[in-house]
Amino acid sequence: MKTIKELNSHVVWTAVVTPLTTEGKVDFASLEFLLKKQEEAGNGIVLLGSTAEALNLSQNDKNEIVKFATKLNLKTSIILGIGGHQLEDQKAWMKFGEEHKFDGYLLVTPLYSKPGLVGQTKWFESLMNTSTRPCMLYNVPGRSAVPMHPGVLTNLKGHKNLWSLKEASGSIEKYSQFRQALPELTIYSGDDALLPFFVPMGCTGVVSVAGNCWPQETKRYAELSLQQKFDRIFPLWEKASNSLFLASNPLPVKALLAKKGWIKTAVMQAPLHHDDFKDVQKLVEINAEVEAWFTKEKNV
């Protein structure tokens, strides 16, 4: 298990997709390829987060993905997504994770029920009490239907397993509120495009969708953002990041990965469907721009 210092050394954590076959089964060969791409880039890995369609997969599929990924003994950090609405179910899922080689967990705000400050605090506290490993809290109101209250961080200050926060509300103001609530906390942007805007307020890096299709490129983008060399990343990376949200995540990124030949199909787990995003030409063009940019960057 990695130390906090080792976890914080990753400027990119890639929320890895779950490749599927044409029959809708987990494509483990493609998954291994993607995971090793992240290992090669030195990126941290988020397994079974929202980009992985975790809530749409069967429990058996999720169990098998955990067993498969952790047995690869990757030489990079890997954390497991914990998210839902029923607390005991999530504690049981975390206990399953405890039996495998994870370096930490990503804990999302409870879904659907829209708890207030006390309910959110108790949710995260209970999960962190169940864990023996560092935890990244996750604010994503677009999926959970309620924003994380900044007071949660104040209430949980000093908890031995509170490691970091993934802020994915899309709001600079919300990021600022979290930073003020617990100034010393490690915070990652949950939106690729907003990383440069969060950096001046002490952002550590990004939990990335773009890292799936551009592992090395996204890492370089993050490094330049942290160095505040914004002239070398705008406007390409804003355009590239936003292109991956032309439809519900992970429809576009899976379509591009399939086009690149990194996964065999762009098949999604129901209720998502790959036919809701068919025109990949714009992504192909942006992919070429990103790859050309990175080639130039390597020669700088």
Describe this structure in words.
With 300 residues, the protein is an alpha/beta fold. The protein contains 13 helices and eight strands. The chain has helices spanning 4-8, 28-41, 59-71, 87-98, 117-130, 141-144, 151-155, 172-181, 195-198, 215-226, 236-243, 251-260, 281-298, and strands at 12-15, 44-47, 78-82, 104-108, 135-139, 162-167, 186-189, 205-208. The chain has an eight-stranded parallel β-barrel with strand order 1-2-3-4-5-6-7-8, surrounded by six helices. Helix 8 (172-181) links the parallel strand 6 (162-167) and strand 7 (186-189). Helix 11 runs antiparallel to helix 13 (281-298). The longest helix has 18 residues, at 281-298. The two termini are 36 Å apart.
Q: Can you describe this structure in just a few lines?
A:
With 300 residues, the chain is of the alpha/beta class. It is built from 13 helices and eight strands. The chain has an eight-stranded parallel barrel, surrounded by six helices.
List keywords for this structure.
single chain, 300 residues, alpha/beta, TIM Barrel, eight-stranded parallel barrel, 13 helices, globular
Q: CA-to-CA gap between the ends?
A: 36 Å
How many E strands?
8
Q: Approximately how much helix is present in the residues? A: 40-55%
Major beta sheet summary: 8 strands, parallel, barrel
**Measured on Cα atoms, how large is the radius of gyration?**
18 Å
Q: How much strand?
A: 5-15%
- Secondary-structure-based class equals alpha/beta
Give the low-pLDDT segments. none
**CATH-defined superfamily:** Aldolase class I
Instruction: Determine the number of helices (DSSP H or I, runs of at least 4 residues).
Output: 13
Topology order in helix (H) and strand (E) letters: HEHEHEHEHEHHEHEHEHHHH
CATH topology: TIM Barrel
Q: Quick one: overall form?
A: globular
